Amino acid sequence: MSGTEGTPPVEAPIAAVVFDVGRVLVEWDLRCLFGKLIDDPDQLEWFVTHVVSEEWHFQHDAGRELAEMVAERKLAFPDHAALIDAYATRFGETIPGPVEGSHELLERLAARGVPLYAITNFASPFWAEFRPTQAPFAHFRDVVVSGDEKLAKPDARIFELAARRFGHEPAAMLFIDDNVANVTAARALGWQVHHFRDAATLEADLLARGLL
Question: Which of 48, 77, 148, 195 has CA 20 to 30 A from 57's CA?
Answer without folding.
Answer: 195
